[in-house]
Design a protein that fits this description.
Layout lengths: L1 H56 L4 H16 L5 H11 L8 E2 L2 E2 L4 H11 L5 H13 L3 H14 L6 H16 L3 H14 L7 H11 L6 H28 L1
Helix pairs in contact: 1-2, 1-3, 2-3, 2-4, 3-4, 4-6, 5-6, 5-7, 6-7, 6-8, 7-8, 7-9, 8-9, 8-10, 9-10
Length: 249
Amino acid sequence: MKISHMVIAGTLLFAAAMLSAQEQQVQRQSTSSSRSETSVESAYLNDADGTIIMGLAASDEYDNKLVALEYLQTAISNSNTSDQVIAALDQLAGEGLTTQARQRNRLMNNYPDIRREACLLMAKVPTEHTKNTLVQITVAESEPMVIAAAVRSLGEIGLNNNDEVVDAICYANRRNQVMNPTSSLALEVLNALEKLAPTTENKRAIIDTAASIASDYHYVAPVRKRALAILKTLGTGSSSSASSNTSSN
């Protein structure tokens, strides 16, 4: 009888263990299925948002482009950086510049305020692609406020392969310093170059740009003082490096 009771008890324990294992397996499958559904739903919503945003950005209506900017801010804040979201950013950043709509040879979509806001948003998507787009705008743009926005975003992104970003910023500053010296743009140039200074081996372009701003009285005094401060910092760094190299030799 004792043996029989033990066999029955063992069978019951085994059955209970099997049932518990099955329940856990069902729970894991349910959790996995739920996560998969959530992932699919999230991807679908991102694609839907991107389609809507791209449609608004490509519209001929100025108001629709403003709405697209609002949607873009929300999408990027929610980590939606789908291909269509990036394409919408490119569209708006180049509105009237890289993408032109003309009627009787008149440019109909010259919206510098739209370009400016899109350039600022690009800093929140720090990729090689957005960096390249901003470099293109920095070189081709003629509106100081748009260039200033592109330069600011380039400084925040911080990518500077082969000094292409530093070169583009210095070129834009030289051109606008001759044609239309603007203190707000000069300040953004200085701030960006200071951030990018550690990424370049050749500091000469930065020093020359800062020196030209510091000595140009078209700019307000605080901007010239900012340029002098950067020159002092770079000069100290160069002197320290030179001293270190001399002592090591």
